[in-house]
Amino acid sequence: MKFFLDTANLDEIKQAASMGILDGVTTNPTLVSREQGKFKDMLVGICEVVNGPVSAEVVSTDFDGMMKEAHELAALHPNIHVKIPMLREGMKAVKALSSEGIRTNVTLCFSASQALLAAKAGATFMSPFVGRVDDISGVGMDIITDIRTIYDNYGFETEILAASLRHPVHVVEAALIGADIATMPYKVFDQLFDHPLTDIGLQRFLDDWEKVKDRVS
Ligand code: E4P
User: What lines the ligand 1 site, CB under 6 Å?
Assistant: First the structure.
């Protein structure tokens, strides 16, 4: 499973990248709005840190507007994957962009039928938003299960990018189902490391080592 960070914060990205297990980054207009600086400079800065896909979202909702923005974003850096919303015009754009060799990430997906459309349009990634479905008393992870089955049934190459993950169990569940990628906020990435028994066990080892350290050499 590939790990992406869901943020536009360069410090968080640098921190995760320094561990050597960061495979990419996803951004969206909300995440960008929380940071300072110009959008395109921000994206290039992220691409220079991350050796992998960096998703940048268009804000047009018509075909021509999305295509224009997509070309501008894709020209910024080879790592850029253009995030396109799950709209009828959006899927037209994904089809056209994929035939030009521009990589795409279909965003705001909440159903298996939408995922089927994204794959048929040739999306590189499709992003089902798990947490937002949970927020309205649905079971977001069930959509990932359905999409995995459908993509495997037909051999679609579109990768499932489990998004809107809110806690470590979401990441583990997505991995068990076989999502190709998990994108998560830095907080969730950091929480993956923690277990109280690790802390207790380490403390005990260090305390016991104190008792024998004079006998080491
Ligand atoms: C994915 O690409 C989205 O940016 C993101 O996962 C949305 O997460 P949220 O529902 O926590 O805002």
Answer: 6, 26, 28, 107, 127, 129, 131-132, 163-164, 183
